[in-house]
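Sample A.
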Amino acid sequence: MRDFLHTLWATVSAIPHLAQILAATYVAYLLLLACYIVLQKREPVATLSWILSLAALPYLGLFVFYLFGPQRIVRQRLRRGRSREGMEAYSAVCPPDAECTELARVGQATTGLPPSSATAVEWLVDGATTYAAILDAVAGARRHVNLEYYIFEPDHAGTALRDALAERARAGVKVRLLLDAVGSSRIRRRFLQPLLDAGGEVVWFHPRQLLKPFKRPWLNLRTHRKLVLVDGTLAFTGGINITDTEDESRRADAYRDLHMRITGHVVRSLQLVFLEDWIYASGQGRAHFDREDLFPSDMPGREDGTIQAQVLVSGPDSSWEAIHRMHVAAIQEASRRVWLVTPYFVPGEAARMALTSAALAGLDTRLLVPRRSDSLFVTLAARSYFDELLQAGVKIYEYGPRMLHTKAFIADDDTCIVGSANFDHRSFRLNFELSMLYHDRGLTAALETLLEQEFARATPVQPERQRPLWRHRLPEAFARLASPLL
């Protein structure tokens, strides 16, 4: 082998003008990729970060860009297809006589989903309570159960839900399970076989396609949604995946998280979100679905719910960054309070300006993050923003020792947003995310009570804290450089 390598190197080094050829190839490689990235029209900082990363990793950077570089997905035809397929009744605009706030109208314009209502919303704290509620709802299903998850593990939590779904499928209930191919990569067909044998359907979202010629893999574009729909009348969504990692009854170090149980007219919008994701991932047409089954005529109307609710979705199939935009708009509209809880805090310029402006204006502006998330690099990037926020008057708290996985937001006394989206570039631009916007004093007050308990368990970050150069400031600064790529 040593002789072979020596011979190969001697042959290559004997090529005339080798250094000039390599230099010219490198420049051409960098110029072509730079032009392609610039034409994506992303934020200048993110564009420059990609170009500098590719320049620092000659040729290897091309493979990294191939796997993780910017990609766009065109799925608007699915939304436009609602009217062609007779689905317009479930995506109607806000009625002229309804009290639709400016925030709600922005949400509708960016997502295509109108303001709606819920008859009841129950906050579910941590995995044990959430899994028990989901299993109970699945056991009572009579028509269908639709599920979409980023992480679904073949552990105790996953096995219990799989068995419950298989039992319902054997009873004639239609079961559809949509799983992200990266987040749920530990799932094997053997694990799914009992559900498949019972008649359930399983579809993978963006399966890995590294070996397919002329097709870039979708490794960086994932469905991060967590959604369960039962009989078109009951929904569960929020931040909790199906995994023992989030079950405090089985692990003392389980993630701290928040979920929701929802009934009412807004479930129609959640059903639409699932339907579009399922059609996109499975390739099935709308003819495969029974409209009365998915949207039962006897479910509550918009006027029956007392809680103003709206579904917010975002992903690489839209350039509007709806969930990001709605957070920024809500911060700017606030007059008394802004509370933000997120496991991953890597804000863009607009969000950072909105938070600091709220604090400078004297609003009660708070940020709760984990003391250390499950990604050290993201933790360092988040801390790089602390000085600016603290100087503006933002009160920052670090939660621990359990990993905080809650994604929640409160503005004033009547507006809150809770869902799957983190407060970072990945959630706002790359992942398919799902959050709920509520405009209701009672529901916001209940969430306030929960978050007050979390703040009480957390440690305030002090402006004068000790931060040695090599251990803190320098690693944080380097992590911040890559924050547009996180």
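Sample B.
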Amino acid sequence: MRQPTRILIAALGGEGGGVLVDWITRAAIEAGLHATRTSIPGVAQRTGATTYYVEVMPAAPGDPVPVLGLNAAPGRVDVFLGTELLEAARRAEAGFLTRDRTLAIVAHRRAYTVTEKSEGGDGRLDESRLAQAVRETAREALIADYEALARQTGAALNALMLGALAASNAVPIPPDAFRAAIRAGKAADSNLRGFEAGLAGAPEPAQPPAPRAGTGPDDLPEEARALAAEGVKRLTDFQDAALAGHYLATLRRFAALPGADGALVAALARHLALRLSSEDVIRVAQLKLRDARRPRLAAEAKARPGDIVHVVEFMKPGPAEVLSLLPPSLARRALRFVERRGWMEKSIALNVSPTRPLGFLRLRLLAALRGWRPRTLKHAEEQAWIAEWLALVERALRLGAPLAREVAESARLVKGYAATDARTRQAWRRIMDAVLLPALDGRLPPDLAADALLQARLAAQKDPEGDALDRTLAAIAARIASSPQRLAAE
């Protein structure tokens, strides 16, 4: 008995999922197949997710028109197309991908959820685990960097995915039928380029480059070398080689301390690089001017070759962001004046166009202040915090590497601008005062302190309002107060 080929597609809003389904059904009809399709709108905490379902079946002379399904059933999907890793993992978790039948074609890319972006620390889900979930549940998984290939070809992601589907031979539709379906729609030239690129194959997901022999991080523990190499690259781009050299010198100093292990140095390599490159309005201007943004913006605008893409950047810097560019003494006086006037919550609405001469010049002038950055209040405050944090890591290391690692990881808490920055720093200080200081003066055993630091950090990250952190710190305080003499003796 002949069976249809069942295709499930998961795409986010604006990614052209509907166009992709239209191409597949048009091509199926062009190839003489029966076809049916359904779309189910949903919500993905980003721009909305839509599930599309297609069934195609060969038509035999004299056969009645088949009744094809309108909804995907778990365990009965032959081909899955996913334009984003988390959406693919969700379909895998729901049972649509199975080891006995499903071919999964997935773009190795992320569109972060509201929860990921709003969490106190680095709330991003682990991409490798999402990809592994797809691989472990599918018969075969083709996970590739289709988005990078789309940027290279100036095509839309959906055209790349269609080419990958044609290359898989998983559906009884010849490539020429897909080409004919593309020609019948809009932006045929760029979409055909994308289709041919997907048909030829996409690159594997980019991996962090291994450090080259002879580079600075080579003398660090193996666990920290790749992170340190990326840190050097980031800091050189952010500021200059001198800052990258200071970064490596700090890592080497900690690596040489008694009791320091590779895991501790790796944690420091990650978080110190992030703190030394804490973003300010100068960095924002640098990033807005990057040449690498242009292909992505053109792809998002679905621009055809030769089209003019006009970009407007909507920015709303507040007093703290603007005045933090001044020297510390002057900036503090200005901030006190603004605070007395009740203007701290105000912001300046700026619409800047880097694609027009005046807007480009404004951003270029702001980015050119990179050399001024070490003289600013923002830099001074960040350096003071880093010095305090590193001093606490060093003191904690005398009580053991596990405690020192948790102090190093506490840097995840500090993030954001203005009010968010102040709130997260306050939470960090509360945790250090309530957990680390009792450990340093002998009122809390190091192993319990390490676990308490972890629990307090997680509570602060998950609950920006602070209620969960209040409860966690209260429980820790009760534990310390319950038997201080016994704890000190342990």
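B remarks: Confidence is low (pLDDT under 50) at residues 208-215, 485-490. Residues 401 and 478 are 25 Å apart (CA to CA).
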